UniProtKB/TrEMBL annotation:
It is found in: Cell membrane; Membrane. PANTHER family: MEMBRANE TRANSPORTER PROTEIN MJ0441-RELATED (PTHR43701), MEMBRANE TRANSPORTER PROTEIN YTNM-RELATED (PTHR43701:SF12). This is Probable membrane transporter protein. It is a multi-pass membrane protein. Pfam families: TauE. It comes from Kribbella sandramycini. Its main location: membrane. The chain crosses the membrane at residues 72-91, 103-124, 181-198, 204-225, 232-250, 262-281. Keywords: Cell membrane, Membrane, Transmembrane, Transmembrane helix.
Amino acid sequence: MRKLLLLALVGLGAQLVDGSLGMAYGVTSTTLLLAIGTNPAAASATVHLAEIGTTLVSGASHWRFGNVDWKVVAKIGIPGAIGAFAGATFLSNLSTDTAAPLMSIILLVLGLYVLIRFTTFGLPKGRLGKPLRKRFLGPLGLVAGFVDSTGGGGWGPVGTPAILASGRLEPRKTIGSIDTSEFLVAIAASIGFIVGIGSEGVNYTWVLALLLGGIIAAPIAAWLVRHIPPRVLGSAVGGVIILTNTRTLLRSDWIDASNGVRYTFYAVIYAVWAAAIVYSVQQYRKNRAEDEQIIAESETAEPVH
């Protein structure tokens, strides 16, 4: 009973972060399942089965608060589902130990860009509102979906920073669209796992516990995204990306840093991250009218093809 309560709380906390910042549900939940001895394929399968429900509720909540760009959902969600199915089907024969650090370096660079871009300059003024094309979203969805299945999480960490870095979609719609399209990814990954490993190792009581926690948190997270200033949201997302991928790199075989080194890095990142958010809040207050005008213009602009 204690384990089920812990899983429900993890599901609640993970979905609250995921729905607010566009990432972390899969990574957080999978990490816990691996820590209690679940094999990687079963852990990822359990999380993705729970995500079918959490992403459905999350997507509906984001739609309710106007956080979804349905064109982006379609363009990235379908390729993402294909990548997720492939990753799930072949997980037992694949190792991402080597690829994970390389992916973390790429994501770390994107995270730094997002943090600096939104903290220093605020909302992008030149490209915001311009359409995100299939030739960008298609490959991104394939890679993100594949990484998500093989690593137990990755749809948000790969998709969110890439779209934010493009400067074409405001943070709340980036997060809402990524969360909504993840429903397709979760279904495809779950089917892939059923094909690949069947139901062996999947504890459906654990799935239900994660699901219940996530369902409770999803509407709260969508409401937060709707009301947090875009500049502040961008800084917050950038910090999560940097912290997550720095942790992956420091713990990888490439570096294998000691506890002292890791904690020093974490302390510096937390300090810089907090300062960035404070600065973003201050700048938002000074330039609130301008930011609101940029968003309004991007929502009413005619699509550019």
